[in-house]
Structures are given as C-alpha cells and as structure tokens.
UniProtKB/TrEMBL annotation:
The organism's place on the tree of life at top rank: Eukaryota
Coiled-coil positions: none
SMART domains cross-referenced by the UniProt entry: LRR_TYP (SM00369)
Pfam families: LRR_8 (PF13855)
Keyword Signal: yes
Keywords attached to this entry: Leucine-rich repeat, Repeat, Signal
Protein's name according to its UniProt entry: Chaoptin
Amino acid sequence: MTMSLDLSHNYFPDMPLEMTVNMTSLRRLDLSYNELSTVPMVAQSLPQLRELSLAGNPITSLTNTTMIGGAQRLKELDIRQLPLNFFETGAFSKMTSLRTLHLSPFKGVRHFNIPQVILSNSGLRQLHVE
C-alpha cells in the first residue's frame, strides 16, 4: 500500500489517470518541478489524498474549478513558484479541509490579495509565503 509518492523533478508534462489507478490509499503526492501546465486530473481522483505539491510547475491559472474533485479532502497544498497570470478569487473556497497552504507572490497576477485567500478559506491554519 503506497502512502506517499514523490515524482518531483521528472519533467512530466502530464499525469495520466492510469498512473495512479491502483493507488487508492495514496495520501501524499509530490509533483513539484515537473512540466505540468495544468493541475492534473489525477490529483482529483485519489480518494485519500491529503497533501499535494505542485510547486515549480509552469501552471498559469487557478480557478474555482481547478481542484473541484479533490478539493474537500486536501489538508496541505504547495503552489509556490508557479508562473500564474490568473488566480480566481475563491479558488480555494471549496477546499474546506485545507489547513496548510504554501505559496509565493504571484507577480503575474494583477491584484493578488493574500488576505482574500485567507478569508475565502476559514479552515486555513498555516500560511507559508515564500
């Protein structure tokens, strides 16, 4: 039973759902520093996933529907060093279990508002800004 999977620094452009079809117990997934341009669907299809790192990928937008499938279960999310140019207000509002968020200032996002991120997720306990 795989609980944690580190696939960081592998230059993956995508994560096919087939890669994790039998990993229903996976709780932590590190996809940081790959070539992912969108949040992969695999992040939404893992029923036990609690921690997800997408740091350092070329993801350019986060919207209210980006994490719709797994949003309620995630407790920790790392989105540092993303070249975002669009961040929808309330993008984390459906992440009701999110307690820890790692992010960095998104220079490409006009009017990025960290207090608004906090207000849209009342369960957040730790905010790490790089």
